[in-house]
Amino acid sequence: MQSDLRLGAFYLLLGEALLAIMGGLIKYLSDTLSTEQIVFFRNAAGLLILMPVILTQGSKLLKTSVWHWHLMRGLVGVSAMYCYFWALGHMPLTEAFLVKLSSPFFMPLIGLLWLGERAGKYSILAVFVGFAGVACILRPDDSAFTFIALIALLGAFLAALAKVTIRRMSATESSQTIVFYFGVIAAVVSLPGAALTWQPVEYELWGWILLLGLVATLGQLALTKAYRIAPTGKVGVYAYSAVLYGALMGWIVWAEIPAWTTWAGAALIVSAGLINLWQPQKTKAQSE
Which of 27, 30, 29, 45 is nearest to 216 (CA)? Predict the structure, then answer.
């Protein structure tokens, strides 16, 4: 229905805006707090928000026969978070958001090598176009920037691996169980790093930390809502609004003006995303 598509687009745009604010808050807090602290605060806030669900469902969330996959997803997911949060503190917002958007291009490769899932020709084309865009952003002639961007790219790869791990165990695990175990593992794993690199938290920062947890959670809820009420192929393109949010926020708050290579990379990455989204629609149309 057209109303569902419009509502789905609204929720996706809202979710990306909230996650862009999260990125801005991480960049701001990185000037004072360590990356390890920020990761821990983000995970602790997420676990706190999960408490009502935990109290309501109780032992139902604990039932699992694939605890090893939960552990792998938790460790990989936290590692991806460390990379992304560190990159946000050291590179312009637009570039960080763009490199993060390369995550879906790793998934066909991981799916093929791990799950034996064959990628279609359009998926393969999207991978090549997407990584051409990433190459523009990496700018090999700038060694310092390349190192930072490579950390962000590693985070995108790890995020893709975490998503494929979720797919691996989705046949037996509910969404609530997957989210619960990730929340627990992420909070526990990120605590030692935060303790070892602990820096005093100024009183006024606690409000920003609470806001970080709030916008991150609301952003994830909005994205989940969007993909539940509207087809991914119809509304997924709006995920690239993150690039505009990042560019606008970076310009207004940090006076960041992206280089022409960044815009060229953005065009290629968005094009790759459109190819990926267009493929299932085309395939479906041919089969009908």
Answer: 45
* Spatial separation of the C-alpha atoms in residues 254 and 269, rounded to whole Å: 24
CA 288 – CA 212 distance, rounded (Å): 46
Profile the chain (288 residues) by mean pLDDT over runs of 10 residues.
73 87 91 92 83 74 83 92 91 82 76 71 75 72 68 89 80 76 88 92 89 84 73 62 79 78 79 67 42
- DSSP letters for 168-184: HHTTT--HHHHHHHHHH
Q: Which two tokens stand for residue 113?
A: 């090598």
Q: What is the largest CA-CA distance in the chain?
A: 62
Name the token pair of 242: 């993150």
Rounded to whole angstroms, the Cα distance separating 271 from 241 reads 13
- In angstroms, the CA 122 to CA 77 distance is 27
Q: Read off the tokens for 111.
A: 């799916």
Contact 127, 281 (CB under 8 A): no
